[in-house]
Design brief:
The chain contains twelve helices and five strands. The protein has a five-stranded mixed beta sheet with strand order 2-1-3-4-5, sandwiched between helices.
């Protein structure tokens, strides 16, 4: 009977070097690449001005801006709905006002504010600045931070359950997975609420805010539990790198991302739905479309994750066989 094939140490070293290079490529693509290629392209803004003045303004900015010419009330409604990132109001005469909103992604707000201020200055004078739903530094940081903490906290809980089951030789049944998902949702939400109170006591800890955070945390926990059930520890190769997408991609607006990142990452990352919906709730804009979208997307993730986590797919005999991912014999009670 032949023993295991022993490969030369040099071959193992080469494999290790290739693995390291692949990790560097993945991290570079997911993080620094999105930031290094960021540039404004069709940033949506609105101008409320007399027609002849509006046409002069629209010519400013080239392809970097996408202008909507309308009246002041309609322009502010677009800003409330987060369909534009800023508004330039030009009354007859030299008076000009740049209007932004704390409920809009700060990356988009910054670009819009700079462009609109420059456009008004080109007509002469310095415009006034008006901010709807003023936001603190903590308020700008909290939505994305809460989303990232919900993901990593739920992931740590799912990984801990998997490892504890492995060490004790117990079977993780549907009841245990449901308890882990619910427990992670409650405790992570409590942790996020504590951070909000610590960072800025003015941040609202209302039912809709905490309920949205709980929905995000449980949706993430359920999805992770389902993938860990199917793949074992190999799921970490997917779940771990996804965490890196949060600050690099979800914190941006699509008009600032390279089209490749916009399509391959931003278009589907769950972090943007949780972050932008929570941003609107924190700033007192619960009717913003991204709140409803976030609830639907996170609800769908929760349902799909729970289905993966608890759907009966293996017989009792298979449950007792070694797990394909970590070769652990699952025995014991549910």
């Amino acid at each position: 009977m032949t023993g295991p094939v022993r490969r030369p140490a040099g071959a193992l070293a080469l494999v290790a070097a290739v693995a390291g290079a692949l990790v560097a490529v993945v991290l570079g693509f997911l993080t620094f690449g999105a930031q290094a290629t960021a540039a404004p392209d069709g940033v949506p803004v609105a101008v409320a001005a007399p027609p002849e003045v509006a046409q002069r303004i629209v010519a400013h900015g080239g392809g970097q801006l996408a202008w909507t010419v309308t009246d002041p009330a309609a322009a502010r409604k677009l800003l409330e709905d987060k369909k534009v990132y800023g508004v330039l109001e030009l009354a007859p005469g030299p008076s000009a006002t740049v209007v932004t909103s704390g409920a809009v992604n700060p990356a988009g707000t910054q670009v819009a504010q700079q462009a609109l201020t420059a456009g008004a200055a080109a007509l002469g004078g310095t415009p006034k600045q008006e901010v709807l739903h003023p936001v603190s530094v903590a308020g700008r940081t909290a939505p994305l931070a809460a989303s990232a903490l919900a993901w990593i906290g739920a992931l740590a809980a799912g990984l801990a359950l998997t490892q504890l089951a492995k060490r004790t030789g117990r079977t993780v049944g549907a009841g245990a997975r449901l308890l882990q998902v619910a427990g992670a949702g409650v405790l992570v939400t409590s942790a996020v609420a504590g951070f909000f109170a610590l960072w800025d006591s003015a941040l609202p800890l209302t039912f809709d805010v905490l309920g949205f955070v709980f929905l995000a945390a449980t949706a993430f926990a359920a999805l992770q539990a389902g993938l860990l059930r199917l793949l074992g520890l190999r799921a970490m190769a997917v779940l771990g790198p996804l965490y890196l997408v949060a600050p690099a991609v979800a914190g941006q607006v699509p008009e600032l991302l390279n089209p490749a990142y916009r399509t391959l990452l931003w278009s589907w990352t769950p972090f943007r739905f949780s972050a932008e919906g929570l941003r609107s709730l924190l700033q007192g804009v619960p009717d913003a479309p991204d709140v409803t979208t976030g609830v639907w997307v996170l609800g769908a993730l929760l349902a799909a994750g729970l289905l993966l986590a608890v759907w009966p797919g293996r017989s009792a005999r298979q449950e007792a066989e070694p797990h394909l991912a970590d070769r652990v014999v699952e025995v014991g009670v549910h």
